Amino acid sequence: MPNYSLLSIPAMWLTAQVPHAYAVNLVKRANNNRFDNANSKGSAFQASLKTAVPAATLARYERAEAAHRNGMENLPFFAAAVLAAKWAGVEEELCEDRGVGG
């Protein structure tokens, strides 16, 4: 039987990537299919978005990027909790239910 609680770690990582892909596609659609992420955390990038992208789209972009950051910041804690439960010998059924979210 597959170990679903351990598989939930890469599933969480993948889930955290979805808002970033959504954010990039938002900006690309609003900016003639252009997205330059050479320095996407720099202030010049944020300023260029404010001029090139409508305010409503920029707000959605910022919310999606915040969701992405939240997922990435919580991933180590989630992974540590799953691994600690496995190493501590917690019942398999409990790990499967909690790891997958059942």
From TrEMBL:
<dbReference type="GO" id="GO:0016020">
    <property type="term" value="C:membrane"/>
</dbReference>
<dbReference type="InterPro" id="IPR001129">
    <property type="entry name" value="Membr-assoc_MAPEG"/>
</dbReference>
<keyword id="KW-1133">Transmembrane helix</keyword>
<dbReference type="Pfam" id="PF01124">
    <property type="entry name" value="MAPEG"/>
</dbReference>
<keyword id="KW-0472">Membrane</keyword>
<keyword id="KW-0812">Transmembrane</keyword>
<dbReference type="InterPro" id="IPR023352">
    <property type="entry name" value="MAPEG-like_dom_sf"/>
</dbReference>
<protein>
    <submittedName>
        <fullName>Putative membrane-associated eicosanoid glutathione metabolism protein</fullName>
    </submittedName>
</protein>
